[in-house]
Amino acid sequence: MKEQKNYFILVLILGALSTISPFSVDMYLPAFPAIAKNLHTSISNIQLSLTSYLIGIAIGQLFYGPLLDRFGRKKPLYAGLWIYVLASIGCAFVSSFEGLIIMRFVQAIGGCVGMVAAQALVRDLFPVNKIAQTLAMLTLVIAVSPMIAPTLGGYIAAHFHWNWLFILLAIICTGIIISCKWQLPDGAEPDLNLSLRPVQVFKKYIEVLKNKQFLTYILVGGIAGAAPFAYIAGSSDVFINIYGLTATEYGWLFAFLSIAMIGATQLNHILLNHFSNRTIVITALSYQLVIGLIIIIGVWTAAFNVWVLIGIMFIFLTGHGLSVPNAAAISLAPFSKNAGSASAMMGFMRMAIGGLVTAMVSLFHNGTAMPMVLLMAGCILVAGMVLLFHFSATGELYNWRKKQAARPFWSKGK
């Protein structure tokens, strides 16, 4: 019982660290129209503050990876979180969209340490055969944030000034810092022999990227995981300005669609008892591609009303809770010593691709839902092509299909 309680507390804290960035993204989405109006600019410009945040996450993680390996997990973690708190306060008092873009970048540089440290600590504190299940649990905790953050953000946007959104983020992060101080284990010991010289750091990342399994599955997980970023970037404009929902209604809609990912992560626990990580990833990408094509056709022909679109997108988003944690588990499995660098590179790829996709949503903004849905489906298509290329180059698909044919479908794959 005590062991289960400690596991729950640990997963909750690691999940809280991982939700700093999702909260920072999701909570201010319902306020996009209000922020654009207050700063005298367009929604497409406010969307760029989301892009700058994702770029900041991508770049910041590359620095935190070596720092977490060199100094241990705690010191870089606290430094980054306090940067986040100060930058959140800065976001609350900007007077232009350019200032918001800059402060969001700084906020991301600080907050992204939570994502890297959480994944590295999973590798530190749990055996290899528990990584996938623990990452799935973290995904569950992360998936709860879209239920809370946009709903809360919608109410704040409707009843208060939007700058209270960022003040609240600063308060939440301060609480997480206190929890880490008293309840989070230290993790791996500092590696005092690790050089922080740029050349040596670069070589470390190159060494990580040379692992074909790691490179393939961070690309697959990163590209497939960018589909929800297209939805996040475009959904407030689509559902508020095109379909006429209020900010509060949009917050509840976002919360409802997040249930798709929560349910999928719970299903993933069950599926991992019977199927391999690879099998789940392949299956999730396959059905997401079919659903993505249906969404494109429906939007293109104006065959969907808002409720039909929401229902089909719900099905589409379940794939995120299946493909991403399993791709991450496959990516991290080869590493023990360089888990921090591997986690940082994985996070960099995810956020860099996500930032590119959100920028494309802003670039191709045309007052319709087509840029959003085309990019959602396109991400799944490209991820599937990367996986197929890897299979054809390594023969992994042939070996995988032989294993599936040689065993009952309910037995656990390896």
From TrEMBL:
Query: Per the record, a Pfam family?
Result: MFS_1
Q: What is its main location?
A: membrane
Instruction: Name the membrane topology term.
Output: Multi-pass membrane protein
| Residue spans crossing the bilayer | 7-25, 45-64, 76-95, 101-122, 134-158, 164-184, 214-232, 252-272, 279-300, 306-335, 347-366, 372-393
SUPFAM superfamilies, per the entry: MFS general substrate transporter
- Record domain Major facilitator superfamily (MFS) profile: where: 10-395
InterPro entries (UniProt xref): Efflux_drug-R_Bcr/CmlA, MFS, MFS_dom, MFS_trans_sf
- Which keywords annotate this record? Cell membrane, Membrane, Transmembrane, Transmembrane helix, Transport
Record bears the keyword Cell membrane = yes
- Entry's localization field: Cell membrane
What Gene3D superfamilies does the annotation carry?
Multidrug resistance protein D
Which protein family is it in? Belongs to the major facilitator superfamily. Bcr/CmlA family.
Q: What is this protein called?
A: Multidrug effflux MFS transporter
Q: Which organism is it from?
A: Cyclobacterium plantarum
